Amino acid sequence: MTTVRLPLFPLNSVLFPGLVLPLNVFEERYRAMMRELLKTPEDEPRRFAVVAIRDGHEVAPSAPGMPDPTALPDRGPLAGFGADPVKAFHKVGCVADAATIRERADGSFEVLATGTSRVRLLSVDASGPFLTAELETLPEEPGDEAAPLAEGVLRSFRQYQKRLAGARERSLATGAELPDEPGVVSYLVAAAMMLDTPSKQRLLQAPDTASRLRDELKLLRSETAIIRNLPSLPASELTRGPMSLN
Q1: Which of helix, strand or coil describes residue 108?
Q2: Which of 15, 67, 166, 174 is the most exposed place for a label (fewest CB within 10 A)?
Q3: What are phi and psi of 92, to 5 degrees?
C-alpha cells in the first residue's frame, strides 16, 4: 500500500481526475494551506487532496447561530466538521495539483487546480493550522469490457448533451471532440453529468473503469428520459467544476 500525507480541502462537491477546479479561498485555515503550498518550488507539484463532505459545512459559520443566537462559532481547522472529521468526509477523494495560486490584496487567494488521481482517506490530522490527511493511492483498473462500454457511454452522453441544451436537431460534439480512452471517458462523463453529490461520489469510488461506465450508462439513459420534456436546461462545461467558496 502506497500512502502519502497531503493538506486536505473538504468541499461540498466531488473532484474527478482531469476536472479543473477553481477555488476562491477566504477562510484563514485554507489561506494558511495556500501559503504553505506556495513554499513549494514552482517546478514541483503543489498538491492537496479534495474530499466531498458527508456531514458538515464547507464554509464554517462566522456569526452566532441557531438555536442559541449567542453561541460563538467554531474556529480552527475542524470548524463545521465535528470532533471526528473522518466520519464527516467521504472516504475516497482526489489529489489536486494547483497550477495557479494567486494571492489578492486582502489576503484571500484565487486558485486553479486540476484533479490528478484518486486516494482513500485513512486518517485526518487537525493539530496544525489546516487539516492534513494520510491517504492511500488508488490504482485505476480497467475492468472487463471497458472499451465497448466507453463507446456506449459516449453515444448516450451525446444524447444527454442534446437534451440538456435543447438541441435535438443539431450535434453538439463529434467523435473527434471527445476522448476514446475508457478511463478518461468515465471521469469526463461523471464530472459533466448533472448529478447530486452522493451519485457523483459513487462514480468516483467505483472499483474499476468498467464498473463506473456501466453505472454511467444506466444514469445517462435514466436522466435523458427524465429531461426529455425539459429542453431548456443549460449544458455544463465538461472539464471545469463550479467555483467553490471553500
Answers
A1: coil
A2: 67
A3: -110, 130
Indicate the angle between helix axes 146-165 and 209-226, nearest 10 degrees: 30
Strand partners, 11: 52
CB atoms within 10 A of CB 23: 25
Residue type, 7: P
Give 225-228's long-range contacts (Cβ < 8 A, gap of 24+): 227/163, 227/164, 228/163
Chain-centre distance for alpha carbon 93: 8
> What length does the chain have?
246
Query: Mean pLDDT lowest for which of 25-34, 35-44, 60-69, 171-180?
Result: 60-69
As a whole number of angstroms, the distance between CA 116 and CA 16 comes to 8
Q: How far apart are CA 212 and CA 184, in angstroms?
A: 11
pLDDT beyond 80 at 68: no
Round to whole Å and give the CA distance between 73 and 62: 6
Distance (Å, whole) CA 144 – CA 82: 41
pLDDT digits (tens, 9 = 90+) for 96-149: 999 999 999 999 999 999 999 999 999 999 999 999 999 999 999 999 999 999
Rg of the chain, C-alpha, whole Å: 19
Q: Identify which has the larger pLDDT, 76 or 68.
A: 76
Amino acid letter for position 5: R
- For 2, how many CA atoms within 13 A lie in the half-sphere containing its CB? 6
